[in-house]
Amino acid sequence: MSSLEPKPVKGCKVLLVEDHPMFREHLGQLINRELGMAVCGEADNIKDAMRLIQKNQPDIAIVDITLRGSSGLELLKDIKAQGLNINVLVLSMHDEELYAERALRAGAKGYITKNEASTEVVKAIRCVMQGEVYASKQMTARLLERMTHRRSGSDITGMETLADRELEVFQMLGRGKSTREIAQTLSLGESTVETYRARIKEKLQLRSAAELYLRAGQWVREHGA
What we know:
By secondary structure, the chain is an alpha/beta fold.
């Protein structure tokens, strides 16, 4: 994680992958005001993002965790699977290290929360474009603490045991989505979604569907997922 003051970036093309139009517009204006930076495309879903990456060949993509119909984590995996040469900075409303760790593990070069100052977004872009990995001081401290606890076997929680797709299904359950709605959104079979539900219940030690929806709803409210 870099603490050095980043240098100016020359000719940096930025792709915005964000499902909130007003925030995307604000972010675009911020980036376009910076010397040597320009937004080369915008998307609110994985399909459009992948098309724009291949068409416009941006230097960096700023990706939200929560996208229309899917997750930014899945976009990171698709980019990695296709061997696309692009840096990814995750910009998310989620400030907990659970997401930061998953994003970095999936290939992101940085993680920043939406409540951080606008100047930090620009700083993060410059750091990533210099080949550094960016995270705030607070996030870095939390991640290091989690790694230390994990090595000692004292900090393994139920949520940590969920795979990325299971976490995505869990979030959608917390938003009140039915099995059919989740299946349609994620392009999965309903039986596959039911399998994910069963795994989540087992890992979180929940006894019924009612307990699952209750736990998921509570988690979404607490974490803004």
